[in-house]
Amino acid sequence: MTRATRQPWLWTNFLNIGLGIWLITAPFTFGYLDPASVGDGVLRITAERELPSVAVRGAAMARSDLVSGVLIVLLSAIAVIPRARLDFVGRWGTCFVGIWLGFAPLLFWSPSPAAFVSDTLIGVLVITFSILVPMMPGMAHHTIMQTPGPVVPSGWTYNPSSWLQRAPIITLGLVGWFISRYLAAYQLGYIDNVWDPLFGDSTMRILDSEVSRAWPVSDAGFGAFAYTFEVLMGFMGGTSRWRTMPWMVTFFGILVIPLGIVSIGLVILQPVAVGTWCTLCLVTALAMLVMIPLAVDEVVAMIQFLERMRRRGKSLWHTFWVGDTLEHAANEDRRTPPYGSGLAQLVPAMLWGVNVPRSLLASATVGAWLMAAPAVAGSGGAAANSDHLTGALVVTFAVIAMAEATRAVRYVNVPAGAWIVAAPWLLGGSTMGASINGLLVGVAVILLSLPKGAVRDRYAGWQRYIV
């Protein structure tokens, strides 16, 4: 079974061996060990953040690449041997080395941009060719032997794990990845300026702020590290992964939903902690925010599946890691358009499970206005900070509620609206105009949070939570 499964994909091991050799030669090819090759930005960052010397960090990067390259070569060679245990150890070991490569330039504050690019790119490639392209070791046997089952969850009207459903999430993850890498290049000292079309040098002020320096590594670089795994996990698994890979859907959901909310929260705090906004940070926050309603339905389907297996007496632990199957259910109202279909079919299929009621769109618009109101009115102090934070939260919860499965989240904006009304009076220092604005905006947010809006799809037992 192992030989039959692995033979068509043996080339991935040899490709990883080549990537390992690349890493072994990289320190000598790109001059990691030459302190004179670094730019003035790296020297500035070294002094400002009180980092170890350029020579020490360059040597650490060189050792990391040498050891990582040797491990990739050895582990990939082990994975060629047609034994299930060796295949498991070799390919998963290569994967974890790839994860280390993505983090090493951040941990060592790599003084060489070539080392940063080489490690992050090689890390992505060895993960891709060790577990993504040839299927995960330990999972292939189950996939082959598994009794065919439904693609659409029972009681649902569409498949939340289809490639079309994942496509916009992967695309938004790539947007965040490229922007985060660009911002990280400034924090690591590779470039001297960051482009910001709206707020001038505000982006650099935020990246150099005390909040940013509180992180032991580049916070923008760490964001890129997280986006890497969001994108890779978006590609992992087939169109039935809500039941065949519950663990993958869980980790993907954790990256997108709770960690996404934390990332959005950090961006929301920028005007309070630093006193300004960052255009590119707002773009990444918006991308992360839109990903949440797009991803939540797959997590709901996975949870329903695990609960169904538990009621049948199946081991929850085993099902979580290995998956299972169900009887076929002819309940699919909407079939995912096949490859080659027109855009008129493909685009709507990407957004099944999400719609934008006018009430939620208006609520998000009002929240965006509240975020901008202090700058327009020229106000400041605690009341202005409250507007910044509460307005951003209103936008966040309104967008999350655009997913039909999380439509009830809109009710969180009811107490937020009440606070908007009361804040100018409780915090003090507000003008009459700001108080009137708070009254109008707060009442509007409350009223706009009450209608449920259209719900076009069905979600089996989860339907009772869509209120």
Concise synopsis of the structure shown:
This protein is mainly alpha-helical. The chain is built from 22 helices and no strands. Helix content is 67%, strand content 0%.
Question: How are the elements arranged and paired?
Answer:
Elements: H1 2-6, H2 10-30, H3 40-48, H4 54-80, H5 84-107, H6 113-132, H7 140-145, H8 163-187, H9 202-207, H10 210-213, H11 219-235, H12 241-244, H13 246-256, H14 258-268, H15 270-273, H16 279-311, H17 316-322, H18 343-350, H19 358-377, H20 381-400, H21 413-427, H22 432-448
Helix pairs in contact: 2-4, 2-6, 4-5, 4-6, 5-6, 8-11, 8-16, 8-18, 11-13, 13-14, 13-16, 14-16, 19-20, 19-22, 20-21, 21-22
What can you tell me about this protein's structure?
With 467 residues, the protein is mainly α. The chain has helices at 2-6, 10-30, 40-48, 54-80, 84-107, 113-132, 140-145, 163-187, 202-207, 210-213, 219-235, 241-244, 246-256, 258-268, 270-273, 279-311, 316-322, 343-350, 358-377, 381-400, 413-427, 432-448. The longest helix is centred in the middle third of the chain and has 33 residues, at 279-311. 44% of the residues are buried.
